[in-house]
Amino acid sequence: MASVLPLAAQRQNSLPRNLLPPELMAQPRLTQQERETIQRALADMQSDKAEMRVGAVMLLSKYHANEAKKAVVEALNDPNARVRRAAVVSIAEWRHGLPVEAVEPVLLHIADEDVEVRRSVSSIIPQMMSIMQMASMIRPDFGNRPLSPEVRRALMGAYHDEDAVVRRNILTNSSNLNLSTPPEVFVEMLDDSDRGVRLEAIPLAIGYGNPVQWTKPAQKIIEGDDTVAQLRLTAELGRRGLPEGIELLRQISQLDNLEIAAEAHLSLFRWTGEPPELDWLIKALVADRLTQDQAQRLLQMLRNYEGLAAPLAPALTELRSSVLRLEAVRLFVSLDLAEQYPEIMARILMDSNQEIRAMGMTQYYVHPELVNDEIIDGLIDNPHADVRAALVQLAIRQPRAEAEGLLYDLMLDEAVDVRIAALETISTMRLEGWPEVVSASLEDQDIAMQRTAVVIMLRERQFPRRDEILREFVEKNPKNPLTPRIRTEIGQGEIIEIDMNKL
């Protein structure tokens, strides 16, 4: 049956209760003592003493009654700065509990005469805008109306606030405000006296400004000694690939700071694909002069340049870092070089990193035509049990006769995990003599192998002589951990269904 609720009410019902604005929530039930406490605090709000009003604000903020919250919001206009500070701190602690009508009055105080109030308001901009966004979803009368001109002027003025914390906060939250801030405001702030402001301004100036506006201040950053600013500038220029940015990146690539220079070379290669840039990067990679993040990004980037990457990929699989070697092997296999370089595949399968070895084995799963007797022999003798165990899956993809010989060889492996995988596959494929192999596995020295054999025998209802074999096992191994459970399942000469998970 279709809902007959108005659309706004349906939206309200679909939202978690803690996200509803307070005016849409049922008022909390207050005890008589709580009501009296609120009334005393409201009376204290009329006191001539600022200390009394501060205490009243902090007390009222603990209650969710509308009259308490209304009084806290009204305290934003108190003549005493300490009272206004207490009001902003209280509002910040409410999270989404502020009535949407109070958002703009709060934001107006970003122009408050008290710097602590301005700082606090500038720090809760995301919280205020989130409340407005939710209101636009559930309040048809509210809609998506913009901030009032008065509030917009106050917020715009924050870009030029005398306090650096306020300026930093307004920059950080500029994307939440939708103020249509003129790009030149961000460009001007590249020369701000505060380093934090300058850093926050870099992505905004480059992102919104015209290259004609920001090229000169960017040049100043390049020629300066602030490496953090240089690195951030490099990252922003590298994201966009503008012609003017490419020219600046070429200058940055000549800086003495290797991390920054490498970042510039990475961006230049990304946007130009020029072999000299790649040559510089590969030399730095091999010499361990790139950060791990830069090296990973370079190797990932090479997947888009098959012609340039193919001659380099084989050597890169020998990088010392296992993290980078993994990325290099991923590049190697993505270029389908396994057939061309079998010796590298052999080395990959001997790697100390299990993830790298698994990637190598996957190549053989995907391309079983690459597998020959020499490779099989090498894999059987591989010192890593996970590689030998993976041979079981590889065997399935081989002709039945070859699979049979390989799986029976693996039954002799020293690692129990390998023997178990081989035994399971032999029984599943019903290879010649599989019942005898399962029965013989009851004599294995490892209890896990014995358990696997018992599970297979109980699972296969037509297993030859299974009643007799299990009884013999119980008689010969009265102290075996499997014996009590098997014995309880044997009755009247028949094997009763067993919960194999309990074995």
Give the secondary structure arrangement, pairings included.
Layout: H1 7-14, H2 32-44, H3 50-60, H4 66-74, H5 81-93, H6 103-108, H7 115-123, H8 125-138, H9 149-158, H10 164-172, H11 174-177, H12 183-188, H13 195-208, H14 211-223, H15 227-240, H16 243-252, H17 258-272, H18 275-286, H19 292-301, H20 306-309, H21 313-316, H22 322-334, H23 342-348, H24 354-366, H25 373-380, H26 385-396, H27 400-410, H28 416-429, H29 434-440, H30 447-459, H31 466-476, H32 483-488, E1 490-491, E2 494-495
Antiparallel strand pairs: 1-2
Helix pairs in contact: 2-3, 3-5, 5-7, 7-10, 10-13, 13-15, 14-16, 15-16, 15-17, 16-17, 17-18, 17-19, 19-22, 22-24, 24-26, 26-27, 26-28, 27-28, 28-30
Task: Name some characteristics of this structure.
disordered N terminus, mainly alpha, single chain, 503 residues, 1% strand
* Count of β-strands: 2
Number of helices: 32
Adjacency order of strands in the biggest sheet: 1-2
Average pLDDT number: 88
- Outline the low-pLDDT stretches: 1-24, 492-496
Largest sheet: 2 strands, antiparallel
Q: What proportion of the residues form beta strands (DSSP E)?
A: under 5%
Distance between the termini: 52 Å
Estimated helix fraction:
55-70%
Which structural class is indicated by helix and strand composition? mainly alpha
Rg calc = 36 Å
Shape: flat
